[in-house]
Amino acid sequence: xxxxxxxxxxxGHLIPGLAVAETLLLRGHPVRLLVSEKxxxxxxxxxxxxxxxxxxxxxxxxxxxGCGTSRQLITFCGRLMRATKDSYEECGEFEPxxxxxxxxxxSAPVILAARWRRxxxxxxxxxxxxxxxxxxxxxxxxHVAVGWADCARYFGRTPVTVTGTPLRSALCRGKVTDAxxxxxxxxxxxxxxxxxxxxxxxxxxxxxTATLTRLKDxxxxxxxxxxxxxxxxxxxxxxxxxxxxxxxxxxxxxxxCNEMELVYSVADVVVARAGAATLTEIAAFGxxxxxxxxxxxxxxxxxxxxxxxxxxGAARIVEQGDATDRASFCERMAEALTxxxxxxxxxxxxxxxxxxxxxxxxxxxIAAILERYERGHIPNGVNQx
Length: 385
Description:
Oligomer: single chain
Number of strands: 13
Shape: elongated
Low-confidence stretches: 381-385
Structural class: alpha/beta
Mean pLDDT: 87
Order of helices and strands: EHEHEHEHEHEEHEHEHEHEHEHEHHH
Distance between the termini: 25 Å
Strand content: 5-15%
Number of helices: 14
CATH architecture of the largest domain: 3-Layer(aba) Sandwich
Radius of gyration: 21 Å
CATH topology of the largest domain: Rossmann fold
CATH superfamily of the largest domain: Glycogen Phosphorylase B
Largest sheet: 7 strands, parallel
């Protein structure tokens, strides 16, 4: 069967979509990816194509659409119409048996075009609370796959299957034995991985570097010492690298990393946003986490995601707060890091709990839903896996 996958705009939509594409390609199904024209999409796709060359894979760019304010409604409608027309033409050329939308406004026009052409459509929602695009397209889709069981209630009568959020195969193979060497880090040191999603997070970069001076004395008295691997986003890379050097910490600072399996393999503690894709990866590697939910996420869904991990005992939440809360933000981050790094038992307990939250075969579950359309069967019912 041929499958068209609409994903992109952010790593949280693109990377799970690539995981499903990878699984479908390995099962022998031709795939066409529809992605945005953002730089992050092109960066991630470069690594994907180099790791999995296939004549059955094609990639096309379409315009992402979004509506930030009511004043932008006319512009939004115009862009939606153009993107839907482009998607309709792509469906006519590729003739997919099914379309998969991974959420975000890159997928909305593709699902609309599939509905227009009477092509079966499936959407995937990674977060605990669905975004606006999936709330809308969920009414048009034949089936919804969700990362969290609680999310099923948002989709009314549309059939829902709990699949988890897909992981690339490289992240499903476990820890990389030579990861320390490849990242230029020392074995035996406690390692903190800091990241803010596919494009970095300026607030996390600021709070961690501001916390370094406060932590310096505590770290110095640790027998084995502490080191960092920090993914900053391109804009903050040089500033963050200079901060580690000024405070004398060993650190590998990168704007972006296409081999996240290396980062997770060396980490003892992760400081991260609480996007669904990030949490899925943290769970797969069984890592204790300090989560800083993005405060402006739609419906505050990152806080809801983080709370699920905190309630389970797999993470601690340090909320970002506003600009006036910076000193308190630093104090809370310093306390969370020193507590976790200083308590081997707590880290081991959180690690086991995080691992228990993982669904490693999510991509296979979504592929299986899509394959049922090839046999002419429309999946029904809610399956709370």
